[in-house]
Amino acid sequence: MRVPLTLEAVHAALFADDPVDKAERSIALHAACERGERLPGSTAADAARLARDTGRHPGHPAAPALVAPAALKRRGVGSEAGRIALLHSLAHIEFNAINLALDAVWRYPDQSHDYVEDWLRVARDEAEHFTLLAERLVTLGSRYGAHPAHDGLWDMARRTEHDILVRMALVPRILEARGLDVAPPMIERLQQAGDHASAAILQRIYTDEITHVAVGNRWFRHVCERRGLDGAAVFRDLLADGHSVWLRGPYNREARLRAGFTEAELDLIREMEDEYRRDNAPA
Asked: How far is Cα 75 from Cα 127, in angstroms, rounded to an integer?
């Protein structure tokens, strides 16, 4: 597939319902960047499309059914059924991650070419991750959509859509960074279960996610600098404003440092998690 690098093409990928189509469009958009194309400035038609579709859920297939996180069963990876459930959950996360990366371009137009290229590269990677997981599910006799899933990642997108600063602060640096914490133990458990093919896919995802979180860190700091704000103070205020509920250790300090967090930020995250738990402990 070959597509031009336009906001209309980004919009078409974001609202594509078929996961394969969405993945192929995302890969094609980054390929347009690699050909040297640049995203034109937004037009009146782009602005009207953005206004019309603000609040609209990105394109998604009829399945999986979306349920509350508490409704999902927890299964170990010792059984094939448990590994399928895990891989399905990860495939859904990667599907949502494609949408988040595309939305970072579509929702905040007229950013620099470097910003656009960064987020379209993330969209490409997430599309490749989704494809690997979906194909692995088929190999194991299942498919994407065969199990229910939750919409937590996109819920945070809705909460942060009003401001690029808030989006960069909370989605890559809180929700997506969580993958850096949980991936290594998952990889180890899959290896212990003898599922080396699935473990290799997760290793690829983990390696790429370090660079994706780094993209979020880079553009969070860029927006703070452009607005003359103290990034550390902004981050603390956002966490204090009801967002500490999303924090959950233990944290992979080494991977987070590689992804561009500072030691002070990691100390702050831990401090805010502890504060949230104290304030919400049963009486």
From this structure: 26
Does residue 250 sit within a domain? Answer: yes
Q: How many of the other CB atoms lie within 10 Å of CB of 149?
A: 22
Of 151, 159, 152, 131, which Cα lies nearest the Cα of 143? 131
DSSP3 helix / strand / coil % (the chain, rounded to 5): 70, 0, 30
- Structural domain containing residue 140: 7-39+80-279
Rounded to two decimals, the pTM is 0.95
Residue 15: give its domain's CATH number: 1.20.1260
CA 164 – CA 169 distance, rounded (Å): 8
What's the rounded Cα separation, in Å, for the pair 11 and 107? 9
CA–CA distance from 42 to each of 10, 45, 167, 173, 222 (Å)? 12, 8, 20, 27, 21
19 is a domain residue: yes
Whether residue 123 is contained in a domain is answered as yes
At 235, is the secondary structure helix, strand, or coil?
Answer: helix
For the chain, the domain total comes to 1
By C-alpha distance, which of 127, 111, 277 is closest to 212?
Answer: 127
- State the Cα–Cα distance between residues 103 and 60, nearest whole angstrom: 14
Cis peptide bond N-terminal to 185, omega within 30: no
Query: What length is written for the chain?
Result: 283
Written as tens digits, the pLDDT of the chain (283 aa) is 899 999 999 999 999 999 999 999 999 999 999 999 999 988 998 889 888 888 888 999 999 988 877 777 777 888 999 999 999 999 999 999 999 999 999 999 999 999 999 999 999 999 999 999 999 999 999 999 999 998 877 888 888 999 999 999 999 999 999 999 999 999 999 999 999 999 999 999 999 999 999 999 999 999 999 999 999 999 999 999 989 988 999 999 999 999 999 999 999 999 999 999 998 888 6
Look at residue 110 and tell me if it is in a domain.
yes
